[in-house]
Amino acid sequence: MGDIRRRGAIALGITGLVAPLTLVLGAAPAQAASCTAQAGPYQKQVEKFLGRPVDGRQSTADCKAIKAFQTKHGITPNAGYAGSVTWGVMDLMNKQKAVGSNPNRAGTCPVNKGRIACVNLTLQLSWIQDGSRLVYGPVPVRTGRDGYETRTGLKKIYWRDKNHVSSIYNVPMPYSQFFDGGQAFHSVNLSMWNPPGSHGCTNMTPKDAKKYWSLLKTGDDVFVYGRKPGT
For the chain, what is the HEC assignment? Predict the structure, then answer.
């Protein structure tokens, strides 16, 4: 973990701020793998998710469909095997879809703070609300992997840098909005379901990160709760 560049710190009233930068790097590119003829333990569930005939037997067409899904989302090895990681991603997608347009149904994210960005680690979803009114989202996000968990609790956006570059990894972190010790919302050019997750930041698609940038400002609240699967 490194330090945040101090550019703009005085203007933001945080002179001399040195915060650890938690950058999110994706998994290595999927390795080329031959298609397996072996059925996996989640064969039927995966077949159903992909709209394939649900018979629990691996066909060439099944393998190609599973392999394409794995390649798209950076799941390795991408050999078309219906294993726990592949099904875990699909199951999370199903749960995210089931949330619909009411992500704060349980009322866990505070409704007495005005505008606030909410992050549900369990479902890997984020949204912006104003009181009980949904402003934007919910959208899928990619949070910290095991050992680099995105920290829970009520936070505030303390620094924003539209064109931030990591001082650790020397890679861009566009639309960075830092809210906890270097953990930030920012965009990445990765699938939001790319395992195992970030190094603590809340990754977003470029479209969603740009929208968050336009809707939030320094001092706005952020509430992070739940637990990312696998952490």
Answer: CEECCCCCCCCCCCCCCCCEECCCCCCCCCCCCCCCCCCCCCHHHHHHHCCCCCCCCCCHHHHHHHHHHHHHCCCCCCCCCCCHHHHHHHHHHHHHHHHCCCCCCCCCCCCCCCEEEEEECCCCEEEEEECCEEEEEEEECECECCCCCCCCEEEECCEEEEEEECCCCCCEEEEEEEEECCEEEEECCCCCCCCCCECCCEEECHHHHHHHHHHCCCCCEEEEECCCCCC
Task: Report pLDDT for 32.
Answer: 56
Q: What is the pTM of this model?
A: 0.85
pLDDT mean across residues, the chain:
88
Span 178-192, pLDDT tens digits: 999 889 999 999 999
